[in-house]
Design a protein that fits this description.
The structure is a homodimer. Chain A is an alpha+beta fold and about 140 residues long. Chain A is built from three helices and six strands, in the order H-H-E-E-H-E-E-E-E. The first copy, chain A, starts with a helix and ends with a strand.
Chain lengths: ~140, ~140
């Protein structure tokens, strides 16, 4: 009986670890898709990576809820000349069908002379498992300076 | 058997609802404690509301990890003359021992002439259940303008 309990507990640990691994792999891929869409100017493609009820919390602007509002926000950022976005995940913690990611970002914003200025900052994303994949549900960020 | 399954399912729904209610009640109280501590200038009291490994993500500053760094950050905000902080929870979603809160904040910051200027913004907090209570584990915010 003791052996069985230990084997069962071990299999739970393995299952939890495999689940966390699969969340991380899926989130890494979704982040790569986000960056690819942004850097080719595809705001509709970005919006599809969010849940239908997702909310973004952009610095210097009100929160925007739902894919249409999220697409409009990123379309504005793309048309404003923001370029070369990059993301670096620092940590992912999974709780069932939810995961929270913390990370760092960089992007380039045109100044008054249209010269690109590099901005660095940090973000928190809450991901939700929707069907087989993971989608951004809450997305908030701010700059370091 | 069918009746038993229904009764069991119903009791699970009740239990989940009671659990969510208790998280919300505890988080509301912790937010009131946060505001009380801030508005009396008690940075150590604020820090005690965070988990030991908590991280804050302040706009215009690097992230700060751990209670000592968090206390130092809020001490700086208090010494910088920030006053009259207020929080308004918009929504709490609980997943086991984790809950994510979204909300709005306001505070007053002195300008160059030491006149207080009201700033409004939004925040995301990830709370963790630690012992019987809930503590801030991730805290990120930014201004609307």
């Amino acid at each position: 009986m003791k052996k069985f309990v230990l084997a069962f507990a071990f299999s739970l640990v393995l299952a939890a670890s495999a689940q966390a691994q699969s969340a991380k792999t899926a989130i890494d891929q979704a982040n790569r898709n986000w960056i690819t869409a942004f850097n080719k100017g595809d705001a509709a493609g970005i919006a599809q990576l969010y849940t239908e009820q997702a909310t973004i919390f952009p610095p210097g602007a009100p929160m925007a809820k739902g894919r249409a509002a999220i697409q409009k926000f990123w379309q504005g950022a793309i048309e404003g000349g923001i370029k070369n976005a990059a993301l670096q995940t620092l940590n992912i913690e999974q709780h069932g069908r939810l995961a929270r990611e913390i990370g760092r970002f960089s992007l380039e914003v045109p100044d008054a002379d249209k010269k690109l200025v590099r901005i660095e900052g940090k973000y928190v994303v809450i991901w939700k498992k929707v069907g087989p994949g993971w989608m951004l549900d809450i997305d908030i960020w701010n700059a370091d300076k």
